Fold this protein.
Amino acid sequence: MIKSVFSVIGLVIPLAFIAGTASGFGAGAEGCGSDCAACHSFKKEEAQGLLKELAPDINVVDVAPAPVRGLFQVFIKKGKDDGVVYVDYSKKYVVSGAIIDVGRKRDVTREQLEDRKQVNVAAIPLDNALVMGNRNGTRKLYVFTDPECPFCAKFHEELTAMVKEDKDLLVYIFLYPLDIHPDSLWKTDAIVCASKKNMERALQMLEDSFAKKSLEKDACGSEYGKSAKKLANELGLAMTPSIVLADGKVIFGAKKKDELRKLIDEHTPKVAEKK
């Protein structure tokens, strides 16, 4: 589950853009050759001034060419939330929404955000994490999940299969109750409480929740769910599941195990062999 990235600017702007060649730009446009971007520039300060008129409390982080012609992509930040909006070359229009690559069936906007998203894994407290796999494993994942999120449930099946296949995999699971799931808060408290005495029981409770089985409302007086929300906010994570790889790269959304295994291989720091 995810809250709209584009709510960052505090506006409701209809999705009015379909990926393709922008009218009036590109080859044959007056003053431009085949590389239209070479004729246009948009400085960070310009973008800040333009967007301030729409949402005074946002900050422009960076400006770069968009993945489709005729647009700039503007990376913005409001508090801990990151987002992207698009501005046309005339600098008169702001487009808020996701660009979808139809051929690859991929959300290009999300990919752009993921490429830039990084957290310091050393700053992630592990006290209240559930643990799957090899506790001494060198291949690590940090997963933020909601006990009532259906996408998390499917992803948990992938994780369960992976820890059986990869004996060096260590997965830290952080229960992050989203407001759209009202029962997730007390379930988080109950599951994390159980983990303090019996990790296997806690993991079974999480699986039961994913399977829509009933759980006992048995908390131990600690507000683990509220602490998890605070941690996710500090890390800038707004959806479940969110995956943090060993080098701090963030991946939003569920992945199949083969794709995730490849990402782990690419983002696990190599340990130098002793001579």
Helices lie at 44-52, 108-116, 150-165, 184-195, 199-210, 224-235, 257-267. The chain has two domains: 5-116, 121-267.
